[in-house]
Amino acid sequence: MALIDTFVASYQYLVDNFDEFLGLLTEHLTLVLVAVVLAITIAVPLGILAERHDRAKAIIMSVGNISQTVPTLAIIALVFPLLGLGFLPSLVGLFTYALLPILTNTVTGLENVNESTVEAARGMGMTEGQIMRKIKLPLAIPVIFAGIRTSAVLSVGTAYLAFFIGGGGLGVWVISGISLFNTPQLLAGAVPGALLAVGLDSLFAFIERQLTGETHATQSPAAG
Hints:
It is built from 9 helices and no strands. By secondary structure, the chain is mainly alpha-helical. Belongs to the binding-protein-dependent transport system permease family.
Protein backbone atom coordinates (compact mmCIF):
# COMPACT_ATOMS: atom_id res chain seq x y z
CA MET A 1 0.00 0.00 0.00
CA ALA A 2 2.85 2.36 0.84
CA LEU A 3 4.35 1.77 -2.61
CA ILE A 4 1.08 2.66 -4.31
CA ASP A 5 0.82 5.80 -2.20
CA THR A 6 4.34 6.77 -3.24
CA PHE A 7 3.53 6.44 -6.94
CA VAL A 8 0.31 8.39 -6.47
CA ALA A 9 2.27 11.12 -4.73
CA SER A 10 4.81 11.11 -7.56
CA TYR A 11 2.06 11.44 -10.13
CA GLN A 12 0.55 14.30 -8.18
CA TYR A 13 3.94 16.01 -7.96
CA LEU A 14 4.31 15.73 -11.73
CA VAL A 15 0.83 17.13 -12.34
CA ASP A 16 1.37 20.02 -9.93
CA ASN A 17 4.68 20.90 -11.60
CA PHE A 18 3.85 19.93 -15.15
CA ASP A 19 5.20 23.08 -16.82
CA GLU A 20 8.56 22.61 -15.12
CA PHE A 21 8.48 18.93 -16.07
CA LEU A 22 7.98 19.76 -19.76
CA GLY A 23 10.95 22.12 -19.63
CA LEU A 24 13.19 19.53 -17.97
CA LEU A 25 12.04 16.77 -20.32
CA THR A 26 12.74 18.98 -23.35
CA GLU A 27 16.23 19.75 -22.05
CA HIS A 28 16.90 16.06 -21.39
CA LEU A 29 15.61 14.90 -24.76
CA THR A 30 17.48 17.63 -26.64
CA LEU A 31 20.73 16.77 -24.89
CA VAL A 32 20.35 13.05 -25.68
CA LEU A 33 19.28 13.45 -29.30
CA VAL A 34 21.98 15.98 -30.18
CA ALA A 35 24.66 13.82 -28.53
CA VAL A 36 23.51 10.64 -30.30
CA VAL A 37 23.15 12.33 -33.71
CA LEU A 38 26.63 13.82 -33.36
CA ALA A 39 27.98 10.41 -32.32
CA ILE A 40 26.38 8.80 -35.40
CA THR A 41 27.80 11.53 -37.64
CA ILE A 42 31.32 10.95 -36.34
CA ALA A 43 31.33 7.24 -35.48
CA VAL A 44 29.93 5.79 -38.72
CA PRO A 45 32.52 7.47 -41.03
CA LEU A 46 35.27 6.56 -38.56
CA GLY A 47 34.00 2.97 -38.54
CA ILE A 48 34.13 2.86 -42.34
CA LEU A 49 37.68 4.22 -42.25
CA ALA A 50 38.69 1.70 -39.59
CA GLU A 51 37.23 -1.19 -41.60
CA ARG A 52 39.26 -0.19 -44.65
CA HIS A 53 42.62 0.52 -42.97
CA ASP A 54 44.05 -1.66 -40.21
CA ARG A 55 46.45 1.03 -38.95
CA ALA A 56 43.62 3.56 -38.71
CA LYS A 57 41.49 0.93 -37.00
CA ALA A 58 44.00 0.45 -34.19
CA ILE A 59 44.15 4.19 -33.52
CA ILE A 60 40.40 4.83 -33.84
CA MET A 61 39.36 1.91 -31.64
CA SER A 62 41.93 2.87 -29.00
CA VAL A 63 40.55 6.40 -28.83
CA GLY A 64 37.00 5.01 -28.73
CA ASN A 65 37.84 2.65 -25.88
CA ILE A 66 39.45 5.45 -23.90
CA SER A 67 36.38 7.64 -24.38
CA GLN A 68 34.21 4.89 -22.91
CA THR A 69 36.40 4.18 -19.89
CA VAL A 70 36.70 7.80 -18.74
CA PRO A 71 33.67 8.63 -16.54
CA THR A 72 31.32 11.25 -17.92
CA LEU A 73 31.80 13.43 -14.84
CA ALA A 74 35.55 13.33 -15.38
CA ILE A 75 35.11 14.47 -18.99
CA ILE A 76 32.81 17.24 -17.80
CA ALA A 77 35.44 18.28 -15.24
CA LEU A 78 38.09 18.41 -17.98
CA VAL A 79 36.03 20.56 -20.36
CA PHE A 80 34.56 22.78 -17.64
CA PRO A 81 37.50 25.24 -17.59
CA LEU A 82 37.11 25.72 -21.36
CA LEU A 83 33.33 25.60 -21.81
CA GLY A 84 31.98 26.61 -18.40
CA LEU A 85 28.57 25.53 -17.13
CA GLY A 86 25.43 24.58 -19.01
CA PHE A 87 24.40 22.65 -22.10
CA LEU A 88 27.66 22.56 -24.08
CA PRO A 89 29.96 20.82 -21.57
CA SER A 90 27.15 18.37 -20.80
CA LEU A 91 26.83 17.65 -24.52
CA VAL A 92 30.57 17.02 -24.86
CA GLY A 93 30.52 14.51 -22.01
CA LEU A 94 27.45 12.75 -23.34
CA PHE A 95 28.73 12.67 -26.93
CA THR A 96 32.03 11.16 -25.82
CA TYR A 97 30.24 8.42 -23.92
CA ALA A 98 27.84 7.70 -26.81
CA LEU A 99 30.60 7.27 -29.38
CA LEU A 100 32.01 3.80 -28.69
CA PRO A 101 28.92 1.55 -29.08
CA ILE A 102 28.17 3.05 -32.51
CA LEU A 103 31.82 2.94 -33.58
CA THR A 104 32.31 -0.65 -32.44
CA ASN A 105 29.11 -1.89 -34.06
CA THR A 106 29.87 -0.10 -37.32
CA VAL A 107 33.25 -1.83 -37.59
CA THR A 108 31.80 -5.19 -36.54
CA GLY A 109 28.86 -4.93 -38.93
CA LEU A 110 31.07 -4.06 -41.91
CA GLU A 111 33.66 -6.73 -41.12
CA ASN A 112 31.01 -9.44 -40.78
CA VAL A 113 29.60 -8.96 -44.28
CA ASN A 114 29.96 -12.24 -46.14
CA GLU A 115 33.23 -12.13 -48.09
CA SER A 116 31.77 -14.18 -50.96
CA THR A 117 29.14 -11.49 -51.48
CA VAL A 118 31.86 -8.83 -51.63
CA GLU A 119 33.96 -10.90 -54.04
CA ALA A 120 30.94 -11.44 -56.28
CA ALA A 121 30.41 -7.68 -56.37
CA ARG A 122 34.07 -7.13 -57.30
CA GLY A 123 33.71 -9.75 -60.01
CA MET A 124 30.83 -7.73 -61.48
CA GLY A 125 33.11 -4.69 -61.71
CA MET A 126 31.85 -2.70 -58.72
CA THR A 127 34.33 -0.27 -57.20
CA GLU A 128 35.22 -0.33 -53.50
CA GLY A 129 33.06 2.75 -52.98
CA GLN A 130 30.09 1.11 -54.67
CA ILE A 131 30.60 -2.05 -52.63
CA MET A 132 30.58 0.00 -49.44
CA ARG A 133 27.42 1.93 -50.38
CA LYS A 134 25.41 -0.83 -52.03
CA ILE A 135 26.59 -4.00 -50.29
CA LYS A 136 28.37 -3.54 -46.98
CA LEU A 137 26.44 -0.65 -45.42
CA PRO A 138 22.97 -2.05 -46.22
CA LEU A 139 23.94 -5.44 -44.79
CA ALA A 140 25.55 -3.84 -41.72
CA ILE A 141 22.55 -1.62 -40.86
CA PRO A 142 21.06 -3.98 -38.22
CA VAL A 143 24.37 -4.19 -36.35
CA ILE A 144 25.02 -0.46 -36.64
CA PHE A 145 21.55 0.34 -35.32
CA ALA A 146 22.05 -2.03 -32.41
CA GLY A 147 24.94 0.25 -31.42
CA ILE A 148 22.84 3.38 -31.96
CA ARG A 149 20.06 1.99 -29.78
CA THR A 150 22.56 1.10 -27.06
CA SER A 151 24.02 4.61 -27.18
CA ALA A 152 20.58 6.21 -27.01
CA VAL A 153 19.55 4.19 -23.93
CA LEU A 154 22.88 4.81 -22.19
CA SER A 155 22.68 8.51 -23.00
CA VAL A 156 19.26 8.87 -21.39
CA GLY A 157 20.71 7.61 -18.11
CA THR A 158 23.98 9.51 -18.40
CA ALA A 159 22.18 12.78 -19.16
CA TYR A 160 20.98 12.91 -15.53
CA LEU A 161 24.55 13.94 -14.63
CA ALA A 162 24.10 17.20 -16.55
CA PHE A 163 22.48 18.53 -13.38
CA PHE A 164 25.90 18.88 -11.74
CA ILE A 165 27.07 21.54 -14.21
CA GLY A 166 23.81 23.31 -14.87
CA GLY A 167 22.92 21.32 -17.97
CA GLY A 168 19.31 20.87 -16.86
CA GLY A 169 17.26 17.80 -17.68
CA LEU A 170 15.38 15.37 -15.49
CA GLY A 171 18.41 15.05 -13.24
CA VAL A 172 17.28 18.27 -11.58
CA TRP A 173 14.35 16.42 -10.02
CA VAL A 174 16.09 13.09 -9.46
CA ILE A 175 19.21 14.39 -7.75
CA SER A 176 17.30 17.07 -5.83
CA GLY A 177 14.87 14.37 -4.73
CA ILE A 178 17.75 12.25 -3.45
CA SER A 179 19.29 15.19 -1.61
CA LEU A 180 16.01 16.22 -0.01
CA PHE A 181 14.75 12.66 0.63
CA ASN A 182 11.79 13.60 -1.55
CA THR A 183 10.79 10.27 -3.09
CA PRO A 184 7.81 11.59 -5.11
CA GLN A 185 10.06 14.18 -6.78
CA LEU A 186 12.73 11.55 -7.42
CA LEU A 187 10.28 9.15 -9.07
CA ALA A 188 8.64 11.96 -11.05
CA GLY A 189 12.02 12.48 -12.70
CA ALA A 190 13.19 8.86 -12.89
CA VAL A 191 10.12 7.12 -14.32
CA PRO A 192 9.76 9.44 -17.35
CA GLY A 193 13.46 8.89 -18.03
CA ALA A 194 12.93 5.14 -18.15
CA LEU A 195 9.96 5.60 -20.49
CA LEU A 196 12.05 7.96 -22.63
CA ALA A 197 14.76 5.30 -22.97
CA VAL A 198 12.17 2.73 -24.08
CA GLY A 199 10.65 5.25 -26.50
CA LEU A 200 13.98 6.14 -28.13
CA ASP A 201 14.91 2.48 -28.45
CA SER A 202 11.58 1.84 -30.20
CA LEU A 203 12.07 4.90 -32.44
CA PHE A 204 15.48 3.77 -33.65
CA ALA A 205 14.18 0.22 -34.09
CA PHE A 206 11.43 1.66 -36.33
CA ILE A 207 13.98 3.67 -38.36
CA GLU A 208 16.08 0.52 -38.72
CA ARG A 209 13.11 -1.43 -40.07
CA GLN A 210 12.39 1.33 -42.58
CA LEU A 211 15.98 1.44 -43.78
CA THR A 212 16.37 -2.33 -44.03
CA GLY A 213 13.13 -2.46 -45.97
CA GLU A 214 14.27 0.23 -48.39
CA THR A 215 17.72 -1.30 -48.88
CA HIS A 216 16.59 -4.92 -49.21
CA ALA A 217 17.03 -4.74 -52.96
CA THR A 218 20.66 -3.70 -52.54
CA GLN A 219 21.60 -6.82 -50.61
CA SER A 220 22.73 -8.73 -53.69
CA PRO A 221 25.34 -7.59 -56.23
CA ALA A 222 22.83 -8.13 -59.01
CA ALA A 223 20.70 -5.28 -57.64
CA GLY A 224 23.55 -2.78 -58.08
